[in-house]
Specification:
Blueprint lengths: L15 H7 L7 E7 L2 E6 L20 H23 L10
Antiparallel strand pairs: 1-2
Length: 97
């Protein structure tokens, strides 16, 4: 069974046979997850975007491209209006006209 030693900085070197089995290389990220109290597993955080399928619960209905475009447009208009109101000069009371 492969083993590793924890350094004073909390680091370990993953043995080569474990790296090969997991298909990980330098720079890859690794997730740790609790299996049960006091026992953890690890898995590489690599793969395609398709691995994310099912991570977000469905909305209950499909949203059309038109609805997405409308929502984006409304948000852009709101952001533009907010920007205008924030950059408007403050009115000065009692100023001569």
């Amino acid at each position: 069974m492969p083993t590793a030693t924890l350094t004073s900085k909390g680091q370990i070197t993953i043995p080569i046979e474990v790296r090969r089995a997991l298909g990980i290389e330098a720079g890859d990220r690794i997730d740790f997850f609790e299996i049960e109290k006091g026992k953890y597993g690890l898995r590489p955080r690599t793969g395609s975007i398709m691995d994310m399928k099912g991570c977000i619960p469905p909305l209950g209905r499909s949203v059309s491209i038109e609805e997405m475009n409308e929502a984006i447009g409304e948000a852009a208009v709101e952001a533009y209006r907010r920007g205008l109101s924030e950059s408007a000069p403050a009115s000065s009371e009692g100023a001569a006209a």
